[in-house]
Amino acid sequence: MNSKTVRKEYDDYLFLELRLSHLTRETYGREIDRFFIFLLENSLELEGITTADLIKYFSFLDGKGLDSVTIIKSLSCLRSFFRFLNYEGYREDNPTEKIEFQKKNYKLPNVLSPEETDHFLNSISIDTPLGLRDRSLFELIYSCGLRISEAVSLTMGNLFFEDALIRVNGKRGKERLVPFGSKAELWLRKYLNEVRPSLIKHGIKDDHIFLSIRGKGISRKGVWKRFKEIKDISGIDAKVHTLRHSFATHLIQGGADLRIVQELLGHSDISTTQIYTHVQNSDLQRDHDDFHPLNENNDKPVFPVSRYAGKGAV
Predict the structure, then answer these.
(1) Which residues are catalytic, by number?
(2) N or C terminus of the chain: which is more exposed, having fewer CB within 10 Å?
């Protein structure tokens, strides 16, 4: 069984039979490529892979420090791949069927405080055209809670300044309208008026809002690279997706309804959105530990003045 041929046929299967998006196919493809490398390094043949071999593979992933959620996703990808091998007649069995992993406690997403978010955004140098673009891009990601893929796919036709809205193309082609704040609007207008025209190259027509220096829509890899550079300058430990997590958490902490946050994030299931209430509850737990007068470990005043001053506390 030729691995390159099988890999190409599998991608065609995901596209033509399952009709998965390009990004989903990329995710599945990366996992299969990693699995093929493991097979090669361990002198294993795809035709003879057993359940025991797969368990060794997942132990290998665990040893590399991958979390349980990632390993469960890996199992899901391989289940699909072996179903494809059954479908094409390459194998009659599916060695993934006997493997089940229990999800460990869900890891709470990393969230920045409003002050940390401001510090990160203010760390972006606006002395250059690309700096202005980056400030506009990350302000919009935070203001609207966008995924990277959603931000880089925005086109001029998705932007409605008169209503302060953007139309976002989310997962599985689901569209949603998301409002953006006045600060994001300020930086977006500056970028569109002062920078974007200079990034347009002769002979290249690209309607994406955020352009690279080559005149084409900026890639996800380009966004990751710029974010890392800004992160190192700011000293803030975060990922691009942290801005989306922070957007949702700050809304809920401010009193926003969970259903509204679900709509803004484009979650199909509200249980996905509820993770942000857990983040808020962990904040409440910390405050309780710090300030409750009966907490034996509490060495702070019973009524911290900084918290209650000017709020009618007695």
Answers:
(1) 147, 171, 241, 244, 267, 276
(2) C
